[in-house]
Structure formats: C-alpha cells, structure tokens
C-alpha cells in the first residue's frame, strides 16, 4: 500500500516562563519539571523569560506578592520594595521588542506570570489572601496585548482537550506565519486547502468566508488578502471546536470512503462517533481511524488534511 505523506509541521514560536523547565529561577532557586514542555522541545522554538530575574531580583530571593489596596501593586514584604513600575515597564518593553510568535505558556500562581490563579493580599503583611484568581503583572501585559493568541499555563495544558486545542492553534498559526512570510496567493490557497476540515470543525461559516477571501484574491494585492484573512483565522481558532461541528467534519471525511467499507466497518465507525458525542476524548481515536482509512484508500486530499493530525503525532502520545 502506498502511504501518502501527512502534513509537514512548522515550528511554532512560544514565549514561556523560564522556570518551566529552562532554569532554576523560582524564588527558592528551583525549577518546575514539566514533562509536556520537555516533549514539546523538539517541535517548538521556545523563547524563555523570567520577568522577576529580568527586573534584577536575585536567586534565591524573598517572595513577592500582589497587594490590592485601592490599586494593584507588586511588593516584596521582606524588604518593603514596591516593584510595580519596574515590572510593568519591563513587561511592556520586553513584549514590544519580540518579533513574531504564536502563543504563550506561563507559570500558574505566580505574582508575575500567573493566569487568573495568583493570590492577592490586602496589604504587605496579611497572612490570609483575599482571593486566588488574580493575574500576575507579566500575565496582565500579555493578556492586554496578545489576547488574540493562545495563552495557557501549565495547569491548563494538563487537560487533554485544552492541550489539544492549544496545540492545534499554535501549529495552525505557525503554519500561517510560514505561508505569510512568502506572501504568495498560491501559498494561502494551499494553506486554506489543507486546513479545510480543521476549520470546518472549528467554524464552518467562517471557513467558507475565508475560502471566499482566498478565491476572490486574484486581482487584489496579495498583502491585502493575507491581512484580510488573518483576523478571521484568529477568530476561528479562538474557541475550542464544538462536538457537533467536529462530527460534521468527521462525517464529511467519512463520505469520501464510506461506500468502500463493509457494513460492519461502517457500523464500528458510527458507533465510535456516537462515543465521541458522549465523551469528547474519543476524538483522538477517531482521528487515527479516519487517517488510516484515508491512507488505505489512497485519498491524497484527505491525507493532507491537518484535521487528522493538527500537530506532530509525538505530541499526541502525551495526551
Ligand atoms: S513564574 Fe515567572 S517570574 Fe516566577 S520564576 Fe517562573 S518565570 Fe520567573
């Protein structure tokens, strides 16, 4: 049997909290082991940063905390230092200087990097925290400038479906970035074509509008076509695909070869689809079934679809 090649994967560029497997830079001079981040290293270009080290806090260092006393401040209780302006200035200038990138992985619960998981206190000395759903200061800057990009913390990507969504987004965005760097109409057409089923699973209406933008691009300036397409791509990927749309995309793919299957194989596939309706995690097995059938029947169009393998299979193994 001839095996058609599956998609080639671009290398997403991800800004990551340095303590997640890159350096022992936490306040206690420890590093956080993240097996998933380790597994991503061969496939992702990481830009690691420790905002607290960057503003000159040493190692080890006295803990810092967020204080809400009329305003939001970043303080170091042991020294009485107020680090608010330092951190805000650093975050703003650091993010401004970065070139293209595709998303963020931040460390949870940190007064700098935490994403809605950080403790906030009423003052420097309080022993009890007011709540534990604050953003860190660096995370605030990330959210305010880049909410259109995937932003997760290491707790979020522990959930297999959220991780799947995050990975699908960063690889789709990186692939677009790669196509956009060449700025050809054909490059965008190829990009849209190989992502069609994935986009159908995310948002069929928007997928069609994006298809029209690409199809009607002839005669327009290529830059304008890319600029028109990108915000729609970002919007399309902003929410996880709902199960009804995923089933539609799966049935669309199934239609390419269902007549070639025995009644028993059809029954098994439709049963698995029913299992997916009840438990979304069945999506990983369904993708494998569909791509193996597409390869068996030498369906080149389907084999090239990112929907079945939106990111390197090695990363699926950790799901
Ligand atoms: S959470 Fe952020 S600031 Fe804290 S050690 Fe990690 S990278 Fe540095």
Q: What report would you give on this structure?
A:
The chain is built from 14 helices and 9 strands. The chain has 319 residues and is α/β, with parallel strands linked by helices. The protein has 2 domains: 146 residues, no CATH class; 157 residues, no CATH class. The strands form 2 sheets. It has a 5-stranded mixed sheet with strand order 5-4-3-7-8. Strands 2-1-6-9 form a 4-stranded parallel sheet, with helices on both faces. Strand 3 and strand 4 form a beta hairpin. The radius of gyration is 23 Å and the shape is elongated. The two termini are 29 Å apart. The N terminus is likely disordered. It binds iron/sulfur cluster (SF4). Iron/sulfur cluster binds next to helix 2. The site of iron/sulfur cluster has 12 residues, from helix 2.
Which tags fit this structure?
319 residues, binds iron/sulfur cluster, 4-stranded parallel beta sheet, elongated
Major beta sheet summary: 5 strands, mixed
Rounded to the nearest angstrom, the distance between the terminal CA atoms is 29 Å
State the secondary-structure class: alpha/beta
Strand content: 5-15%
Please specify the SSE layout and strand pairing.
Layout: E1 13-17, H1 35-40, E2 45-49, H2 51-54, E3 65-68, E4 72-76, E5 81-82, H3 84-97, E6 103-106, E7 118-121, E8 131-134, H4 137-146, E9 151-153, H5 160-182, H6 185-194, H7 196-202, H8 204-215, H9 222-236, H10 243-254, H11 263-278, H12 283-296, H13 300-303, H14 313-316
Parallel strand pairs: 1-2, 1-6, 3-7, 6-9
Antiparallel strand pairs: 3-4, 4-5, 7-8
Helix pairs in contact: 3-4, 6-8, 7-8, 7-10, 8-9, 11-12
């Amino acid at each position: 049997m001839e095996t058609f090649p599956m998609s080639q994967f671009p290398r997403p560029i991800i800004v990551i909290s340095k303590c997640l497997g890159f350096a022992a830079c936490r306040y206690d001079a420890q590093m956080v082991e993240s097996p998933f981040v380790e597994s991503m290293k061969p496939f992702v270009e990481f830009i690691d940063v420790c905002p607290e080290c960057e503003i000159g806090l040493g190692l080890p260092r006295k803990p810092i905390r967020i204080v809400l006393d009329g305003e939001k401040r970043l303080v170091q209780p042991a020294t009485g230092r107020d680090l608010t302006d330092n951190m805000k200035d650093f975050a703003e200038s650091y993010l401004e200087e970065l070139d293209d990138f595709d998303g963020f992985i931040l460390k949870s619960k940190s007064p700098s990097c935490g994403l809605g998981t950080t403790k906030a206190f009423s003052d420097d000395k309080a022993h009890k925290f007011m709540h534990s759903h604050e953003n860190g200061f660096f995370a605030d800057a990330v959210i305010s400038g880049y909410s259109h990009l995937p932003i997760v913390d290491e707790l979020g990507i522990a959930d297999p479906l959220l991780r799947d969504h995050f990975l699908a987004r960063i690889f789709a965005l990186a692939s677009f970035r790669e196509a956009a760097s060449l700025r050809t109409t054909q490059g965008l057409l190829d990009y849209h074509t190989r992502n069609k089923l994935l986009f159908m699973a995310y948002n069929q209406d928007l997928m069609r509008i994006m298809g029209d933008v690409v199809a009607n691009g002839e005669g327009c300036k290529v830059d304008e076509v890319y600029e028109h397409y990108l915000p729609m791509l970002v919007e399309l990927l902003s929410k996880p695909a709902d199960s009804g749309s995923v089933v539609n995309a799966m049935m669309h793919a199934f239609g390419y070869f269902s007549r070639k299957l025995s009644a028993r194989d059809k029954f098994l596939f439709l049963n698995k689809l029913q299992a997916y309706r009840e438990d979304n995690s069945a999506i990983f097995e369904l993708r494998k079934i569909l791509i193996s059938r597409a390869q068996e029947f030498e369906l080149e169009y389907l084999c090239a679809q990112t929907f079945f393998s939106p990111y390197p299979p090695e990363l699926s193994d950790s799901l």
